[in-house]
Amino acid sequence: MNKRPPLRRSAPIEAESDGVIEGRNAVIEALRAGVTIDKIFIAKGETDATLGHIASTAREKGIVVVDADRRKLDGMSRTHSHQGVIALCAVREYVTVDDILAIAREKGEKPLIVVCDELSDPHNLGAVIRTADAAGAHGVIIPKRRSAGLTAVVAKTSAGAVAHVPVARVPNLVAALKELQQAGVWIFGTAAEGTTSLYQADLKGPAAIVIGSEGDGMGRLVTENCDFTVSIPMFGKINSLNASAAAAVLLYEAVRQRVGG
């Protein structure tokens, strides 16, 4: 009698429902089927022809390919049979910067946008998206590289807000800021040494709020392309806030100003 246990077959299905696709054939099929993939992690140093084919196909489709050591892949794996490749799916399609601006126009509102400069922690990105939804922001912009994407972890942390908040993923964040400026949007960057205090910043007009990375804050080029750098008053022993908390403070100051509170 064949008493094959069902666990071998159920594990990959469970993994895919979590947004993780593992194994060479599974990733190749996902690429062929046009699944929206956020990133593909491939074992560093591998010269296998199949993995090379996956990497080149992914890059042709504009998918970020990351070289990862085996320990990282083992830690990400749900099935323990990743074969040197793991893909993370996006839970929804990305939009463009123009799409976000169009949403504001259709609502007859001045744009309120959050720009995340290399937020690598998916929990932080999910929290920012959740706050953006609550504050009525028209969209969130993230860079294509060195950033968390719209993965299942981000969706869960956002409490479902990813279904409602458009997210644009751009290859060049500075170019996206210039595009916003050309559309009449003022860029407000958050920085501990900002030249404008939060409560002096005029956030009533078209505004994009830039939140820096967890460790280093905003990058130099991003900072140089902000119209204003804004500091949040700090009165305790700690001189900085978590990225998602900083986003919440600025977004709700914008809300307060816009509703006339």
- How many discrete domains? 2
% residues in beta strands: 15-25%
Q: How many alpha or pi helices?
A: 10
SS class: alpha/beta
CATH architecture of the largest domain: 3-Layer(aba) Sandwich
Overall 3D shape: elongated
End-to-end separation in angstroms reads 74 Å
CATH topology (level 3) name of the largest domain = Alpha/beta knot
Overall pLDDT metric: 87
**CATH class category of the largest domain:** Alpha Beta
List how many beta strands DSSP finds.
11
Helix fraction? 25-40%
- The side-by-side strand order for the widest beta sheet comes to 7-6-5-10-8-11-9
Provide the succession of SSEs. Answer: HEHEHEHEHEHEHEHEEEHEH
**Corresponding CATH superfamily of the largest domain:** SPOUT methyltransferase, trefoil knot domain
What is the topological layout?
Layout: H1 7-17, E1 20-22, H2 24-33, E2 37-43, H3 49-60, E3 64-68, H4 70-76, E4 85-89, H5 97-107, E5 112-116, H6 122-135, E6 139-143, H7 152-157, E7 167-170, H8 173-182, E8 186-190, E9 196-197, E10 207-211, H9 220-224, E11 228-231, H10 243-259
Helix pairs in contact: 2-3, 6-10
